[in-house]
């Protein structure tokens, strides 16, 4: 079954109940996906500006030069955000806008944009939640080695200090990295994202230097904050790994998938060590993480919150379709298995109950407060004759996943917030503008914003939650 282009629901679900008024509600975006103004006010190219120019790298040869033109339409967008009733807006800073080239002093014009954004948000009662890195590494740092180079981690800590010095007096919520798995694996192992490299060993070096960059930046932020309020975190894209059968091969495949997708990040961040089984698996491939003395202590700088980006769980088999336990390279098979489940336009299975499973597991194994920093779905929206955007499939997706958060909290998971991805349709990386995740539609020709039905449902759910808790 593939329901990627078929709405799953035609009726709008009732608003989800069961969350307290102090539960945090938000929407999320990232700089390169919405800002545009790629060469204005001192911004220099990022790895995504470069990657988008590689023939065949991005669908349609598209890029983020204009995107949603948020850089020029920011006050209008903040008004939109406030009208949704959310209390938090998660956005990322563009490193090459704040520190062109990735070295040297801060760019005052770049910082001024974010100062104006924060002022607009706070003036409308919306809390800013900053992500320092959402994949737009300055191209000059990539030319010097990118995340393969240990120096990039040092440069990231310097950039974090510059950002906090300028904005820390008005922002308490800071996330270092967004989805280091994507930066390392999609960018350095699979070549699907910038910078487009394809080497598993390079990817593991990138994993370690990303985590080291997080740890050094976290330490720098703690030091800069002194006694000032600071909620510090990192955001990981996480899912679940379910064996196709109870066979040892399938259970081993899940161990590997979970190890490389989750524990490789969570264990050093929380426990100060890499998982021994995954280190051994990598050694069998002649890959070694470039750990130096003191690195793991830095990476394990205490966190206040773990951001969780959830889109799907997956099922795995440990044999090929013809039954072999080894792949073409002689390595143990870890094969994703399609299930008979509805899917989004990304061809991703829709698995809300597995979000509950994940959140309960995170509470049990890692004990950190969590916030769902991204959750949402791409569907093939159409504009109705009256100009509205009915998207019952996306609304159902949000409703089912928020209900999964309620269920996880009922089982003891300390989940403190939910941010819908995304505020608006935007540049969807290698897919260009072909996939729409927004709860707000963007007409890319006119830059007109239109609330989809999912946005109205989300607004009503937030209102109902607050009203119910104060009734």
TrEMBL record:
Catalytic activity: Hydrolysis of terminal, non-reducing beta-D-glucosyl residues with release of beta-D-glucose
Pfam families: Glyco_hydro_1 (PF00232)
Annotated EC: 3.2.1.21
Single GO cellular component term: cytosol
Signal peptide positions (record): none
InterPro entries: GH, GH_1_N_CS, Glyco_hydro_1, Glyco_hydro_1_AS, Glyco_hydro_1_beta-glucosidase
Record has Disulfide bond as a keyword: no
Binding-site residues for substrate, renumbered to this chain: 33, 134, 178, 311, 421, 428-429
Molecular function GO labels: beta-glucosidase activity
Any one GO BP annotation for this protein: cellulose catabolic process
Keywords linked to the UniProt accession: Carbohydrate metabolism, Cellulose degradation, Glycosidase, Hydrolase, Polysaccharide degradation
Active-site residue list: 179, 374
Family in the record: Belongs to the glycosyl hydrolase 1 family.
NCBIfam families: BGL
Protein's recorded name: Beta-glucosidase
Species per Swiss-Prot/TrEMBL record: Streptomyces filamentosus NRRL 15998
